């Protein structure tokens, strides 16, 4: 396991930011931590990195106790709202991170050039940081997080405030990190972004873990198939379909079930009446629906 924690708690006076969170993250995949603003996501990450001292924490990071200094050197981190000296160039920021990691100069320079090219900043690397757009700043932030070749990378809201093209590029970088065998921990409230890259997700709300599992499993719980006809359905067919308990619209039939075979009777009935089929598609819950249901359950409880 890349991360394994039990009962991580953090209090700020009377305020309970994290209420005994337990979490395990497998090595070599992309893990997404979701939650509304103020849920405790950043506090959890900062506690794992010992940037915040937890009130209570038992667990391991890359197989060693939380806070083990040599292990932290194998971790890369892009914080939310990262603040780098704005008078430095992008190249100098990456080089500064290499120096803080005590990398050998020759190796650091080689990785610097490779990473600047990889994040699409090679031609702008010598521009001053204050002149960068939000997307450019995030790219430099990712490069500095990877400069020391970490095994585990924490990305806190990596696509927040980034334009659509920049988001696509950042997703590509995350997929490349996974392909290299790194564990990537993405902390975000942008559900569609996480759904596209994460193998597993957990949902944090009010400092408590309210849902977790493989992304595919969470969205597969309510699978259905939708068939659309070319034009309105004949009245007799609509009545027959409704009798089967299917959800019927003016030109659509929705049948619940994970296997495509469940929709075959609909197709057969439409063909028997010479009704043209315009579309057949699988429909499943989005991660957004999973998220809203989990948060609503927490609020009701």
Automatic annotation (TrEMBL):
One of its GO terms (molecular function) is ATP binding. It comes from the Bacteria. Residues 3-231 form the ABC transporter domain. Gene3D superfamilies: P-loop containing nucleotide triphosphate hydrolases (3.40.50.300). Keywords: ATP-binding, Nucleotide-binding, Transport. Belongs to the ABC transporter superfamily. This is ABC-2 type transport system ATP-binding protein.
């Amino acid at each position: 396991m890349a991360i394994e924690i039990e009962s991580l708690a953090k209090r700020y006076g009377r305020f309970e930011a994290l209420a005994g969170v337990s979490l395990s993250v497998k090595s070599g995949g992309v893990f997404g931590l979701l939650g509304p603003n103020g849920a405790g996501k950043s506090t959890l990450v900062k506690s794992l990195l010992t940037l915040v001292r937890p009130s209570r924490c038992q667990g391991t990071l890359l197989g060693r106790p939380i806070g083990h200094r040599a292990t932290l050197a194998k971790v890369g981190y892009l914080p939310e709202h990262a603040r780098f000296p704005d008078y430095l160039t992008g190249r100098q920021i990456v080089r500064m991170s290499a120096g803080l990691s005590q990398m050998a100069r020759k190796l650091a320079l080689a990785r610097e050039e490779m990473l600047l090219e990889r994040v699409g900043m090679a031609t702008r690397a010598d521009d001053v940081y204050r002149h960068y757009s939000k997307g450019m700043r995030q790219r430099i932030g990712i490069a500095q997080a990877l400069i020391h070749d970490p095994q585990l990378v924490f990305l806190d809201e990596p696509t927040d405030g980034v334009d659509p093209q920049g988001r696509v590029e950042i997703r590509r970088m995350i997929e490349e990190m996974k392909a290299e065998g790194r564990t990537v921990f993405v902390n975000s409230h942008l559900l569609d972004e996480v759904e596209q890259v994460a193998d597993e997700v957990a949902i944090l709300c009010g400092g408590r873990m309210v849902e977790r599992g493989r992304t595919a499993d969470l969205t597969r719980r309510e699978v259905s198939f939708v068939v659309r006809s070319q034009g309105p359905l004949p009245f007799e067919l609509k009545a027959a379909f409704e009798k089967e308990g299917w959800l019927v619209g003016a030109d659509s039939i929705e049948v619940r079930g994970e296997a495509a075979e469940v929709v075959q009777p609909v197709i057969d009935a439409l063909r028997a009446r010479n009704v043209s089929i315009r579309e057949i598609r699988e429909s499943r819950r989005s991660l957004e629906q999973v998220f809203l249901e989990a948060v609503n359950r927490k609020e009701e409880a």
